[in-house]
Amino acid sequence: MLTLYDYLPSGNGYKVRLLLSQLGRPFELVEKDILKGETRTPEFLAINPNGRIPVLVLEDGRRLAESDAILFYLAEGTPYLPEDRFERAEVLQWLFFEQYSHEPSIAVARFWIHSLGKRTEWAARLEEKWQRGHQALAVMERHLDGRRFFVGERYGIADIALYAYTHVAEEGEFDLSGYPRIRAWLDRVADQPGHVMITQGVF
Ligand SMILES: N[C@@H](CCC(=O)N[C@@H](CS)C(=O)NCC(=O)O)C(=O)O
Predict the structure, then answer these.
(1) Which one of 35, 61, 81, 84 has the largest count of C-beta atoms within 10 Å of its C-beta?
(2) Number of the ligand 1 atom closest to the C-alpha atom of 52
(3) What is the pLDDT of residues 59-109, one digit of tens each?
(4) Pocket test for ligand 1, best of 4, 6, 12 (most atoms within 8 A of CB)
């Protein structure tokens, strides 16, 4: 059976849990509390030298870190990853966008405010996160003009990767009321078969 090292409030971990649920693949969940430093112990660093969840352990013992790489691996040969060469590259385009332009602002603002309670203390640093986060949301809003999903008009891992932190962006004080296409897309993603909530660990 697959094993997933994870922390339930994590959007990066949630991406993997959501796809596993939609694929109907059972897995063993091993929870690590990142707030207690449980991903920085020598034991965990032997599993992922980068000291972060999620990590997927395959049946044969091989380990894979980085949420979007795990999505790409699990989605191969399923309806969640296109076969067409160009569309696969478009999926990668959005996965890289998510990791470089979206997650570092939107996820981090949420983490600082919602998980660490640093809203007041880090207000100045948050300003930059909000500015960059809104730039990323504006890119998504423009792309969704006339489109139902991010790639090939079919729900897939590009949607999963972007949904994970966008649907909880308000916990990082991002107001989504000015993004009607994103809000409609969030509803479409939540309506997909096998959808689970972010803190759901077992299905
Ligand atoms: N790029 C990585 C980011 C992983 C990441 O930042 N994980 C966080 C939780 S969302 C973590 O494990 N933090 C614990 C730490 O840094 O000690 C991914 O997409 O998987």
Answers:
(1) 81
(2) 12
(3) 999 999 999 999 999 999 999 999 999 999 999 999 999 999 999 999 999
(4) 12
102 lines ligand 1 (CB under 6 A): no
Distance CA 112, CA 64 (A): 27
Q: Which residues contact 90 (CB under 8 A, 6 or more apart)?
A: 150, 151, 152, 158
Nearest CA to ligand 1 atom 16: 52
Q: Domain 2-75: which topology?
A: Glutaredoxin (3.40.30)
Question: How far is the C-alpha of 61 from the C-alpha of 44, rounded, in Å?
Answer: 15
The architecture of the domain spanning 85-190 is: Up-down Bundle (1.20)
- Cβ 36 under 6 angstroms from ligand 1: no
pLDDT, residue 199, reads 86
pTM of the model: 0.97
